[in-house]
């Protein structure tokens, strides 16, 4: 979604409504979506993250009560609701609530037009089906042209983290990262490969500890030129084809 969309204070419900209701009303008034892997930072006003933390904490306390956990006398879980709320809002899902990190872009003054590969970048997320961890590696291949913008090496990791720090499914995450980098860099081609462990398979269900998911997105010259695609894949450690 467009994180630069304007807010609509007039769409707010009454002030006594939960802060989540006020944020949701602004998003709906702007006719934007707020799926699990969307960024909604443009609709959050100053001071509301603290209020949202309190609201999420209260909701998690209700969940713990429904799980019949005595948080009053159990010293291990007395502060669990607040710890989990802070973890979701400020860490694991911060890519929903924080604006896109600043990225300095440089013109391609040397007209670089050779394959560049960045990775492996460690990525962490949580599946939007069970909120179980996703942990893996990401490789990015770029074919710049004279009109491309170049970004610093660390910025690939920052942008990937911003996308991954939301409830995700891997197939959509790599597409979101590709869309973001294509928009930022305007290269001739872009290639992304992600390999990740999914704890929704490790902890539950089939409880298979070995299975991984590997998927890729190819754009521009990587999609059209099979030899370039093979070169990229052959240069990935332990991904030789």
How would you describe what is shown here?
- The protein is α+β, with helices and mostly antiparallel strands and 241 residues long.
- The chain is 38% helix and 20% strand.
- The protein contains 9 helices and 7 strands.
- The protein has helices at residues 19-29, 48-66, 80-92, 94-97, 153-164, 170-185, 199-202, 221-224, 226-234, and strands spanning 105-107, 116-127, 133-143, 149-151, 167-168, 189-198, 213-220.
- The strands form 2 sheets. The protein has a 5-stranded mixed beta sheet. A two-stranded antiparallel sheet has the order 1-4.
- Strand 2 (116-127) and strand 3 (133-143) form a beta hairpin.
- Helix 2 (48-66) packs across helix 3.
- The chain is globular, with a radius of gyration of 21 Å.
- The model has no long low-confidence stretch (mean pLDDT 89).
């Amino acid at each position: 979604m467009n994180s630069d969309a304007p807010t609509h204070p007039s769409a707010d419900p009454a002030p006594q409504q939960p802060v989540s209701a006020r944020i949701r009303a602004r998003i709906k008034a702007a006719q934007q979506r707020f799926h699990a892997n969307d960024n909604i930072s443009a609709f959050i006003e100053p001071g509301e993250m603290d209020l949202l933390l309190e609201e999420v904490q209260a909701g998690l306390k209700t969940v713990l009560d429904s799980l019949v956990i005595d948080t009053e006398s159990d010293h291990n879980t007395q502060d669990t609701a607040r710890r989990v709320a802070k973890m979701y809002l400020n860490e694991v899902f911060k890519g929903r609530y924080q604006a896109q990190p600043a990225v300095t872009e440089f013109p391609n003054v040397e007209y670089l037009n050779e394959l560049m590969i960045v990775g492996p970048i460690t990525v962490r997320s949580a599946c939007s089906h069970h909120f179980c961890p996703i942990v893996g590696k990401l490789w990015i291949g770029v074919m710049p042209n004279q009109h491309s913008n170049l970004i610093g090496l660390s910025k690939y990791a920052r942008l990937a983290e911003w996308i991954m720090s939301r409830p995700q499914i891997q197939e959509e995450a790599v597409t979101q990262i590709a869309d973001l980098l294509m928009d930022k860099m305007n290269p001739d081609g872009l290639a992304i490969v992600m390999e990740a462990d999914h704890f929704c398979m490790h902890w539950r269900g089939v409880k298979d500890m070995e299975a991984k998911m590997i998927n890729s997105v190819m754009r521009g010259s990587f999609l059209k030129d099979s030899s370039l695609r093979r070169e990229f894949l052959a240069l990935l450690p332990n991904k030789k084809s």
